[in-house]
Each structure stands twice: as structure tokens, then as C-alpha cells.
Design a protein that fits this description.
Length: about 650
């Protein structure tokens, strides 16, 4: 009996030990020795920094606490292995400089996150004693320490302050599970070796910190520094996410008009490294557009909708006749070549599907192409590679950087212009961050068209964010009541994302019977239809920014023939380079929310009827079709990419 009892206790202990180890190492490699001698650098097959790189890193709240599901795919290992930097004792200035210097990257890295704890930027430099290995990397081995007490070094380890895991509350607006179905083969192959080392290092780092000498890492010696707005170090404290705070600078619509005119006069696109006859073709096209025959009316186009209908019509005709696009075949599913046709980010998926299946514009020979399309899905990039709870997206950027380096090494076209004749179409909020630096000169068609996040007016394209409820019938429920049957002055209902929407509700919720301003509607088919019926019955549909400047309500309003009222400073409206938004919308500054009703009431009925007519006429430019139609959303997106390229190109 005693033997059985002890065997039972031993089995229970072993079970909990294995359970604990599994929690620490999601990859299941808890029995590997820490820092094996045959350490393999993470740079073996990729351009990513190694696990013990002392180069600039991107920190998260607690890189040493990882949920098992967070490392369920191999890409997560690269992502998590870059979270800690080491400094020897006496080198704390480098650690503090590191903290101060990463402020800008951290701001942009966390800019699009949806929620955060109050101390995301709180870090500390903790001292521990350890023996250096052959690589100059601290190791944790009790035998070595006992035998080499005189060789102990004091290390500064950068760790997040607090020790809690972040709770990822990023809204999954497509109602899809977060767990990736598959991982790109490039990451699978590149991690077959380094995966093990990175995993063991994570355990090692956790043990090293938890077993640190308390007298060395005492509270009085901790450096609770974070990066302040002016780049200087300050004491840590509560800090809100950027998306939950008003922007530091504001660019309003009239200022955007000036920026567009200025950028048209002086293009910032680089001159190609060598000339091409295709460049001469585009320069000839530019001259034809600038000297387009005057058009006063057109049976297919409504003139008031356009900045210059003559130039638009001529440019569109030349696009149909001349434009050739090469679509890169490189890249594996699901991130490449696998469009999503339903949900909030459907615009990038519909464009990908229709572009890759197009026979009019697409050529097989890249030597014939004026433009080059990089067909990735920013939604699938996040879905497949983002490590939940990490609040860090550097591995998403690395992935696209590797892709860019791959095509630039295989083909000569990207290098000729630094990507100025390449374009991407991405609707996810994080796309500006993911494409920063390595795709900086490309034409970016982005839903998140925010001038404070690097959107270049006159080069980049503001992509309409279209919430597609039915992939088979993207035009379901199209239309609305005629103007005289619209009894509601203004309508809004939605979640309280960001700082602006609570302000809207504070001023107008339950304050006026003409202003139907609500918070989130309860889930259910009846409430969804009630939401749609409200838009179909309202004169004006309020479109405030959420976490980011863009909102699907702008296209929804056009879809249901309701005049959109856009309240989002720094937001560049869709197809800004060709459309005259004054003809079919009302654009207000965020500071005008307290005067919202007075402003809307002051719009004469005659002007409202013109705006509503403009909405009905512009509607066809914001619709997806299984087989593209002339002037539809596919063609408008491609045209704006073409149009901006034409006016950015420079002669040698």
C-alpha cells in the first residue's frame, strides 16, 4: 500500500511538472538543455536578428510570459526571440538609450492596437549574475556557476515591469477564429532549425530573471524608465494607446487640397536607375491627360462628382487602352493569392481576386508592365502570424520585408525604381506599419489613409473600406428610401472604439429626437436589419473615426443612399485625387461635434437634395461585381493607382 501511495504521488508530481513545463514552453521542448553548444543563429535562413542579438529590439509588455496558443506556429518563435536585449553591468547607459531611442518605433508599433493595459511602456533593467558562454551570452548552469564563482559577470537584462500577460482584446470583426489554419512555407522551412534554440532561450530567460539575486536586483536599483514624447527618459506611469487619444497634429480637408496641388506640381518619386520605353509611354500619357479635351457632360459620368471630369475621362480611357500590370506569382497561401471576399477587410480580397483573374490588364511578361502588383492580404498576414497578447507586430513587417527582398533579388524591376512602379492593396488597420520602410516608395492603396501614419497624398490611394456581408451577393440590400421619406435627421450606432465616439454620444445620445445617436446595437438579425433600416431612413449618416481614421460607415452610407457625415481629422477620403467629396458628403472637423445638429440644420433643403443625388450617382463607383463593370470599385481603385503613377513619374 505504501509503495502504491508513493507511486501515485510521484505520478501526480510528474504530471504537474510536465504541465508546468508545457506552459512555459508551448513548443513542447521543455526537456532541452538551455543554450546548447551548437547554438544556431536565427539568421541562418532569414534576415531576422538572432535570439541573442544586441541590436535594437521591439519590446512588449511581458515577453517572458507566453500563452501556449501564442506559439502554436513556427513564426511566433522568431517573433518572441527578439523581445529581450542584454547589457553588461556598467553599460546601463546603452540600455537607457535603447529605451529612449525606440520611442518612435514603439509609438507606430502600438498605434493600431485596439486595447492595452495602462503601463504598456513600463520596462526595467534588472541585474542578474551569470557566467558567459563561448558566444559571450549569459548562461544559467548551476554547475558552471559553482565551479566558476570568480568568473561571474553581472548582466543587465531588459524586462517588462509588472509580470502580467496582456489580454488581447483586438476586435475580430470578421467573426473568425484567431488560430491560424496554416503558416507560409517560407517560415516553416526557415525555422526548422532555430525553432528549438529560440524556444530554449525563452525558458532560459524566464529562469534567469526569476532566479536573479534579490540583493542585486533590488527595488532601489531598478531603472523604471520609459520613453517620453520628447525622447527623454522619465518615470513610468499610466499611458494610453495612441488610438485612444486625440492626434497631436490635425490635417483638415482644405489642407489636404493644398497638399495634393503641391505634390502634383513637384513629384517626389525617384528617377529610375535606368530608362525604359514604358516610362516614355507614361510621360506621353501624362501630357495627353493634362491636355484632355473639355467634357461638360457625359452619359456615363456625373460631372459634379469629379475634380476635373475631362482629365478623369481621358485618363480612364488611356488606362483601358495602355495599362499593363504584372502580378507576382511569388508568395504562398494563405497570405498571398488567397482573397477574403466577406467581412470588414473585403476590399483587398475583391481587388486581389479580380486583378489576378483579369485578362485585359495583366501580362505574363514583366518587361511589358507599367505597374507591378504584390498580391498579399494584410488581413491574412495578421490572422496567420500575429502572436496574440503580444502587442507586437514586427514579425509581420519582417515577413513582408523578406518577400520584398525575394522579388527584388529574383527580378530587376523593384530595384530600378525602389518600388515606385509597384503597388499593394491592403485594408487592415496595421498595413501602414507592416509596409513601412521596405515598401516605402510603393504606391499603397490603403483603407487606413491617415496622413499622420505616412499616407502620401498624390501617391498613395485611399481604398474604400467596404463591409461585404455576402460574398455571393456583395450588393445585397442596396439602396434606400427617397429623400422625402427620410424622417431621421442624423443616425449613428456602433461600438465605442477610440476617443471620438464617446464624445459624440456624450453630446447627442438621448439629447434630441431628431438625432438618433446610439451605442452598440445588441447582436441579432433583427437588430442588424434595424441598423440597415435606420441608414435607409436617415438624411445624414454620421461616420466618426474609430480606433483608426477609416470607417466602413462611409461606404455603408453611400450603399444605403444616405449622405455621409465624415468626422475624422487626418483621414484622406477615398479616391481623393479624382473625386469631389463636397458633391456628395459633409466633412466636419472633430471639434465641430457639439454643433453637429446646428450645422446639419443649416444645410438648405435644395443643397441636401443635390448631396443625396450625388450619393446615388457616386454609388456605382463603390460597388464590387463578380465580373467587373466600367467605372466600378475595381476599376476606380486601379485607375487611381495608375493616375497617381502617371503624375509621379519623372523623366531622366
Amino acid at each position: 500500500m505504501e509503495t502504491r501511495k508513493w507511486l501515485f504521488l510521484l505520478g501526480v508530481s510528474a504530471f504537474y511538472f510536465l504541465l508546468f513545463q508545457t506552459t512555459l514552453l508551448p513548443s513542447g521542448n521543455s526537456t532541452w538543455p538551455p543554450l546548447p553548444e551548437n547554438h544556431v543563429s536565427l539568421r541562418s535562413k532569414t534576415s531576422h536578428p538572432s535570439a541573442h542579438s544586441t541590436s535594437k529590439s521591439y519590446a512588449v509588455r511581458n515577453p517572458l510570459t507566453v500563452n501556449a496558443s501564442d506559439l502554436s506556429n513556427s513564426s511566433a518563435v522568431i517573433h518572441m526571440a527578439k523581445k529581450v536585449d542584454f547589457f553588461t553591468v556598467g553599460d546601463e547607459n546603452r540600455g537607457h538609450d535603447w529605451l529612449r531611442g525606440m520611442e518612435n518605433d514603439m509609438e507606430s508599433d502600438l498605434a493600431s492596437e485596439k486595447h492595452s493595459s495602462k503601463s504598456d511602456y513600463a520596462f526595467e533593467l534588472r541585474e542578474v549574475r551569470a557566467v558567459s558562454d563561448s558566444h559571450g551570452f549569459p548562461k544559467k548552469n548551476t554547475a558552471d556557476i559553482n565551479e566558476n564563482k570568480n568568473d561571474l559577470s553581472v548582466w543587465k537584462i531588459l524586462v517588462p515591469k509588472g509580470g502580467k500577460s496582456m489580454n488581447n482584446e483586438v476586435e475580430n470583426r470578421n467573426n473568425k477564429p484567431r488560430e491560424p489554419e496554416s503558416v507560409d512555407a517560407t517560415f516553416q522551412s526557415s525555422l526548422s532549425g532555430p525553432n528549438r534554440t529560440a524556444s530554449t532561450n525563452l525558458t532560459y530567460l524566464r529562469n534567469l530573471v526569476s532566479n536573479a539575486n534579490p540583493s542585486v536586483g533590488s527595488t532601489s536599483q531598478k531603472n523604471d524608465l520609459i520613453a517620453s514624447d520628447n525622447g527623454t527618459a522619465r518615470m513610468s506611469g499610466p499611458r494610453k494607446m495612441r488610438c485612444n487619444m486625440p492626434p497631436k497634429s490635425r490635417t483638415l480637408i482644405h489642407e489636404m487640397e493644398k497638399i495634393l496641388a503641391r505634390n502634383r506640381r513637384s513629384s517626389r518619386a525617384m528617377r529610375p536607375r535606368w530608362s525604359s520605353k514604358l516610362d516614355q509611354e507614361i510621360l506621353a500619357v501624362k501630357s495627353e491627360i493634362e491636355h484632355a479635351p473639355i467634357v461638360t457632360s457625359d452619359k456615363e459620368l456625373y460631372a459634379p462628382l469629379f475634380r476635373n471630369i475631362s482629365m478623369f475621362k481621358r485618363s480612364y480611357e488611356l488606362m483601358e487602352r495602355k495599362l499593363k500590370v504584372y502580378v507576382y506569382k511569388e508568395g504562398n497561401k494563405p497570405i498571398f493569392h488567397q482573397p477574403i471576399l466577406k467581412g470588414l477587410y473585403a476590399s483587398e480580397g475583391w481587388f486581389m481576386k479580380l486583378m489576378e483573374g483579369n485578362k485585359q490588364f495583366v501580362v505574363k511578361d514583366p518587361r511589358q508592365a507599367h505597374l507591378f502588383y504584390m498580391p498579399f492580404s494584410s488581413r491574412m498576414l495578421e490572422f496567420s502570424l500575429y502572436v496574440r497578447n503580444s502587442h507586437n507586430r514586427t514579425n509581420l513587417r519582417w515577413y513582408l520585408k523578406d518577400y520584398t527582398e525575394k522579388i527584388s533579388a529574383k527580378y530587376r524591376y523593384f530595384n530600378r525604381t525602389d518600388g515606385a512602379d509597384h503597388f499593394l492593396v491592403a485594408c487592415h488597420d496595421w498595413a501602414p506599419y507592416e509596409t513601412k520602410h521596405h515598401m516605402e516608395h510603393c504606391i499603397k492603396a490603403l483603407c487606413n489613409a491617415d496622413v499622420t501614419q505616412g499616407f502620401k497624398i498624390g501617391r498613395d490611394v485611399s481604398l474604400p473600406e467596404t463591409y461585404v456581408r455576402s460574398a455571393r451577393n456583395p450588393q445585397r440590400d442596396l439602396g434606400g428610401k427617397p429623400p422625402h421619406q427620410r424622417s431621421i435627421l442624423a443616425f449613428y450606432a456602433g461600438n465605442m472604439h477610440g476617443y471620438l465616439r464617446p464624445i459624440l454620444l456624450k453630446h447627442w445620445k438621448d439629447k434630441d429626437p431628431d438625432m438618433k445617436i446610439f451605442g452598440p446595437m445588441p447582436p441579432g438579425v433583427a437588430n442588424k436589419m434595424n441598423y440597415i433600416q435606420h441608414m435607409k431612413s436617415s438624411k445624414y449618416c454620421i461616420c466618426p473615426k474609430g480606433y483608426e481614421v477609416n470607417s466602413p460607415r462611409v461606404v455603408e452610407a453611400i450603399f444605403y443612399e444616405c449622405v455621409p457625415v465624415i468626422i475624422s481629422d487626418n483621414f484622406v477620403p477615398s479616391f481623393f485625387e479624382v473625386l469631389n467629396w463636397d458633391a456628395f458628403s459633409v466633412i466636419l472637423a472633430e471639434k465641430d461635434i457639439p454643433n453637429l445638429k446646428r450645422i446639419l440644420d443649416s444645410i438648405p433643403q435644395e443643397k441636401y437634395l443635390k448631396l443625396q443625388l450625388g450619393v446615388r450617382r457616386v454609388q456605382k463607383h463603390f460597388l464590387w461585381h463578380a465580373k467587373p463593370l466600367k467605372y466600378d470599385l475595381f476599376h476606380m481603385t486601379l485607375h487611381s493607382i495608375w493616375y497617381n503613377r502617371v503624375f509621379q513619374i519623372k523623366a531622366r
